[in-house]
Amino acid sequence: MNLRTKANVGRFLMLVGLGLLVGMVLQAQDVRYNFMPGTDFAKYHTYKWVPIEGGSHPNQIADAEIKSSVDSQLTAKGLTKTDSDNADLLMGYQVSVDKEKQWNAYSMGGVRFGGMGSATSSTISNGSLVLDMYDPTSKQLVWTGTATKTLNPSSNQEKNQKNLDKAMAKLLKNFPPPPKK
Q1: What's the pLDDT tens digit per position in 89-113?
Q2: Is residue 143 over pLDDT 50?
Q3: Residue 65 burial (CB < 10 Å; 0-12/13-18/19+)?
Q4: Is 29-100+120-171 assigned to CATH 3.30.160.670?
Q5: Structure pTM?
Q6: Domain residue ranges of the chain, discontinuous segments joined by +
Q7: Residues 6+ away with beta carbon under 8 Å from 133
């Protein structure tokens, strides 16, 4: 390989690495939501947790952490959790974890002096949590939100809970949606 080809390969690998890094940062935390048009969210004051049939759920500890995080966000917004069948909203969630390849490009040397480049791959896990809210009277989905984040769990449980709380605060930031004027 001549010097010019090595430089071009090195540049290419650096650009690929930068592109992947930017893509990872942008996808590191993605939050989306949608709601049923015309819904009067002011009428909802209480909610009850219900399982989503066929939904994937984590272990009991993670389940309690997720519900606690959502509960604190909804409490701050004036909603009250209840176990009553007369709840204004039915709340459920499900989770998924997807694996994907991540490519890391390295370059030694430089464009001017040539150099060598290499790339390695690793597997990363992206976790998604979908939170759904149903009106029990109409039996309709009235609000849904999804939070997706690259998972990098720590052995520090407090740090994990803090990250979960941040994600749920971001997910529920625009709940309830403002009424249309």
Answers
A1: 999 999 887 655 556 665 665 555 5
A2: yes
A3: middle
A4: yes
A5: 0.69
A6: 29-100+120-171
A7: 47, 89, 90, 91, 141, 142, 143, 144
